[in-house]
Amino acid sequence: MKNTGKIKPAHAGKFMFEKIPSGIKGLDEITGGGLPKGRPALVSGGPGCGKTLFAMEFIARGIIDYNEPGVFVAFEEKIDDLKKNFHSMGFDLDELVRQKKLVLDHITIDRTEIEETGEYDLEGLFIRLGAMIDDVGAKRVAIDTLEAIFSGFANEAILRSELRRLFLWLKDRGITAVVTGERGDRTITKYGLEEYVADCVITLDHRVTNQIATRRLRVVKYRGSIHGTDEYPFLISSDGISVLPITTMSLTHMASTERIATGIPRLDTMLGAKGFYRGSSILVSGQAGTGKTSIAATFVNAACKRGEKCLLFIFEESESQFIRNMKSIGMDFEPWIKKGLLKFHAVRPTAYSLEMHLSMMIKLIDEFKPRVIAVDPISNLYPIGDDVQVRSMMMRLIDYAKSLQITGLFTNLSNDSASEAFSLEPTQMAVSSLMDAWLILKNIEGNGERNRVFSIIKSRGMAHSNQLREFVLSDKGIELLDLYKGTEGVLFGSARMAQQSREVSDRLLRNEEIERKQRELDSKKLVMENEIALLKAKFAREEDEMKTVIGQEVYREKAADSAMKEIAVQRKADR
Amino acid sequence: MTRKPGAGKMPDEAGTDREDFVDLRLYVVDRTSRSLTAYANIKKICEAYSPGKYRITVIDLLKSPDLARSEDITAVPTLIRVPRTPGGRKIIGMLTDTKKVLEELDLTGNGEDSGNPGRNTNKHRTITR
């Protein structure tokens, strides 16, 4: 059976439709390959949500990218308007028509121009379509907005049976068709076209929340195919629609073991002397004025020095302001920009919705192909989305960056109202779990001044320092200093300096005291020695005197004795 | 099908450019019963209300499919009076409602309606019999 060529070889025992690329960026990823080949797909949505663009991109990209000629039938827009509108998106429809690849047809359906009497059918439309399809050998047909025929003809019963016949007819001819329909109040389309298109139904939506419009696309139904059922934000830009899968389904990105320097030597040493992993995501959070932007800039600067392309998303400052400010701490970004290594994307957060921001970021990443991205700061996204939304957006961005091995640094402004300690705030908690590394900067007030203190909260997959560092910004850039641990606890800034000098003077004083004591001792010793000498002299004197006295006494005794003997001799006394 | 009873061989050939001449095109697809009924109905109407001063050209889109696009035909059968005038409408269906058809073609039934003000605004549509 040759016909089974339309059906792919058995897929796990289930037959599957063959798919053809839609030509719409991102849609093929969601649908696992595109639209069902040889079948009609219904695209429904409210006014201005991009139905016509979807249909035209399907046709034009089909011709340009996949060499499948197409027919575009417009019920609403005039051919000239279509040409004009799509010229601005880079499609030269006239040229495609000239090449016999495209037929554009406008069908006027106006009830005021039609009078109905008796039964009729839409065979004219079939003939017309058939002629155009044969003209260019079309493989693709777009009908925008088919439901317009309901406004043209009164007999709904006829229309319904003719529509059913039209879809079958398209299928029989093996045409892959995109049929657009207006969204109904409770139904996918106003007139229930979805009843007839059983294979693939896609809805487009254009919603406004917090005054920010977001376009979303959802695959409502895709028979015989696995498809994402989430609402996917999409973007209409100068080169058409691009749809973003909301999250990648699994965590399959390769983890790099390559390490990249942070641009702050002392931080590298805190991170096991090597810096962050390539492809990791880094959160730098801190209060206002703690130096988050400077860290981001230093990181980017270091990457540029290595010759790596960097993309910097800034939500607070303009590009020139950023460059000027960073010059004051010794970084010049202008050469990097000139070399094409650095690109800024400065935009107000409130300019777009979260999805739009994400789309823009991903689009820029695709175009610029950076190795490092930085977002400063992600907290500025909170006014346009709640925690869950921001988290989901960040997750998508980080996933996307990781899948391309792009290292991402994200700054986050944390609340000033937090206590002095390194408290972990809930918003940070929400985002931080997505991050591989988390640095915290803190202002610490005391002694009438504020000082910056820095620490690494986490850094997955590497040994890292648990110590706080004082963070100093100078015209030479960022410097991390050891905290002063003295007898009076941990000290920062001038307190540290004061303490240090106080200690020096204390030491000097102590030395002097010792010397003084020494001198005192010396002199005491001298006094003592003097006294000893005096005593000795006195003793010597006294000894002399005593000896004289003793000598005299001894003489006197002897003299008395000899005098007695003399007397006795004279008296000739016997005994 | 496509017999072309009227095409080029009208009894009143010389009068085709007359104001009251009714030149009609009937677009059909194939010789379906619907096509045939529509043709029979319009012929009957013309015979009754504009005898000798009409021409019906039946165009089968199967044979000339490109006309569907150039003439902007969607539904069949479609009856158009030529030359087309601003406000001139297409009549679709089997043309079963004679009164409606007459109104659309600005034909007046047996003169009963002639002079009905506000209807015959197009000067060349006025048929006097």
Question: Helix and strand layout, with pairings?
Answer:
The complex is a heterodimer of chains A (575) and B (129).
Chain A: E1 19-20, H1 27-30, E2 35-36, E3 40-45, H2 51-66, E4 70-74, H3 79-87, H4 93-98, E5 102-106, E6 114-116, H5 123-136, E7 140-144, H6 148-152, H7 156-172, E8 176-182, E9 200-209, E10 212-222, E11 231-237, E12 240-243, E13 259-260, H8 265-270, E14 276-277, E15 281-286, H9 292-305, E16 310-314, H10 319-327, H11 334-339, E17 342-346, H12 354-368, E18 372-376, H13 387-403, E19 407-413, H14 426-432, E20 437-446, E21 449-459, E22 469-474, E23 477-482, E24 484-486, E25 489-491, H15 493-571
Parallel strand pairs in A: 3-8, 3-9, 4-5, 4-7, 7-8, 15-19, 15-20, 16-17, 16-18, 18-19
Antiparallel strand pairs in A: 1-2, 9-10, 10-11, 11-12, 13-14, 20-21, 21-22, 22-23, 24-25
Chain B: E1 22-28, H1 33-49, E2 54-60, H2 66-70, E3 78-82, E4 90-92, H3 98-105
Parallel strand pairs in B: 1-2
Antiparallel strand pairs in B: 1-3, 3-4
Describe this structure in words.
The complex is a heterodimer of chains A (575) and B (129). In chain A, the strands form five sheets. In chain A, strands 5-4-7-8-3-9-10-11-12 form a nine-stranded mixed beta sheet, with helices on both faces. Chain A is rod-shaped. In chain A, 39% of the residues lie in helices and 24% in strands. Chain A has helices at 27-30, 51-66, 79-87, 93-98, 123-136, 148-152, 156-172, 265-270, 292-305, 319-327, 334-339, 354-368, 387-403, 426-432, 493-571, and strands spanning 19-20, 35-36, 40-45, 70-74, 102-106, 114-116, 140-144, 176-182, 200-209, 212-222, 231-237, 240-243, 259-260, 276-277, 281-286, 310-314, 342-346, 372-376, 407-413, 437-446, 449-459, 469-474, 477-482, 484-486, 489-491. By secondary structure, chain A is of the alpha/beta class. Chain B has one domain: Glutaredoxin. The longest helix of chain B is centred in the first third of the chain and has 17 residues, at 33-49. Chain B is built from three helices and four strands; from the N terminus they run βαβαββα. Chain B has helices at 33-49, 66-70, 98-105; strands at 22-28, 54-60, 78-82, 90-92. The interface between A and B is medium-sized, with 27 and 32 residues.
